[in-house]
Amino acid sequence: MVVALLVVILLGMLMVYSMRKPKNFPPGPMWWPLVGSSIEMKRESKLVGGRQQIVLEKMCKKWKTNVIGLKLGSQLVVCVSTFNVLKKVFDNEAFFARPNNFFIKLRTIGSSPGITCAEGKLFEEHKKFVLKSLQSRIGKVAMETKIFEELEDVIQLINLQPQKVQFGKIMQPAVVNIIWSLIAGERIKRSDPQFLTLLRLLDERSKVFDMGGGTLSNFPWLRFVAPDWVGYTLINNLNMELKNFFTKTIDDHHQNWNERQKNDLIYSYVSQKHDQLLMIILDLFVGGAHSSAAVLDFAFLLMLHRPDIKRKVQANLDEAFAPTEPMRYSDRNRVPYLEATLSEVMRYCHVFPVGGSRRALQDTELEGYTIPKDTTILIDLYSILNSKEAWGDPENFRPERFIVNDKFEAIENYIPFGIGRRRCLGEVLARRILFLVFAEVMRRYDVLPEEGKPLPSIMAQPGITALPQPYNARFVERIPYYK
């Protein structure tokens, strides 16, 4: 009886302790024993269709702060929601690390941390090497050549059934092939069963995880109780698919090293004997598989909703280029309205509503609050890209906000690829894909709603990458422009 009473008292003390917030921690919702703020986050998220970025925005308004303090499971989490505070985080070496939770460990497949999850000297060395390989050894001209090769394939698929085109469905494999051809020097057939499985797993991966790595990172013990529900089974399946897929190509490069030395990323690493190759490929492949295709999918969706903007983009193209004149990324200054439209798409649709997370390496101060060591820092890009103070009318899709004196002008708060040393590794490639594909398709086709159907919703699907809901459109050749 005494022992049982002591156990109850001890458990009670532990529960009370788990509800106590660190001294001077940022304001936020109440913490409950064992689960912290997770219950409230889940409840509020359901009310807004799973879009947790909306929940974070509401919390900032409720507590009248730019820094929200949470506890997800046993993990301390701080969310930053303004550009000025974000800069302080990115400029502070104490916030340079990535989270060290179960999800991150699982993501690295028990291998090296790659680039995304690396820190310190390892991060600096490998980022420098990959950027050098992509920009000099492979080259920007080679990037554009591969983009145009895939674009012609996309155009052929559009022409097969122009009255009912699901652009996102045909564009994602193209983006994957562009990335893969730069990594491995070869193209994957769209009909390859392994490739189709890989695309399906990437789609499911994007949808299954919520903010900060999801339920699995906050309650890792649930993998023993409900592995399917928390996504553990899916991650393991994805890991094995990716590992087998990449390993086969890496082995082929090793076996044929003396026979053929192609200008691709894998041969660069084989020659340098880098042991992080598998995770480097994972970073580049998974990181870029959805994002560029999603932005383009949103871009054409918005052209359905805003035919006035579509006509301005096409007029900009018609004035700048002859009907069959080749376009290069270096020509973008000739079409400022098109570039402004793409920039506004990335702001308005925020494909990554929550940016890459960080971890406090030591007890640190931020905006007058104390951030304990190992706290995870989330970047609320949704709030940053929808700030009324910064944008005036963020609820409106208005490319003109990026036009000054008839020229495109970037805005400081516009950070689709991040800022600082952890700026997106694939930015050089992504910008070329977005510009060249959007420009060429808009030049060739008039994108129209499907006949007899209402306009598709602009509301994104919830997930790490905010994908558009599937929709169909008509891609009508512009007559006589391309006849």
Automatic annotation (TrEMBL):
List, in alphabetical order, the Gene Ontology terms for molecular function in this entry.
Answer: heme binding; iron ion binding; oxidoreductase activity, acting on paired donors, with incorporation or reduction of molecular oxygen, reduced flavin or flavoprotein as one donor, and incorporation of one atom of oxygen; steroid hydroxylase activity
As cofactor, the record names: heme
Q: Where in the cell is it found?
A: Endoplasmic reticulum membrane; Microsome membrane
Extent of the signal sequence:
1-18
Which residues does the record give as heme binding sites? 424
Q: Which controlled-vocabulary keywords does the entry list?
A: Endoplasmic reticulum, Heme, Iron, Membrane, Metal-binding, Microsome, Monooxygenase, Oxidoreductase, Signal
Q: Which SUPFAM superfamilies match?
A: Cytochrome P450
Topology of the protein relative to the lipid bilayer: Peripheral membrane protein
Q: Which GO terms describe its biological process?
A: organic acid metabolic process; xenobiotic metabolic process
Q: Answer whether the UniProt record assigns the keyword tRNA processing to this protein.
A: no
What Gene Ontology cellular-component terms does the record carry? endoplasmic reticulum membrane
The UniProt function text for this chain reads: May be involved in the metabolism of insect hormones and in the breakdown of synthetic insecticides.
Protein family per UniProt: Belongs to the cytochrome P450 family.
Question: Could you identify this protein by its name?
Answer: Cytochrome P450
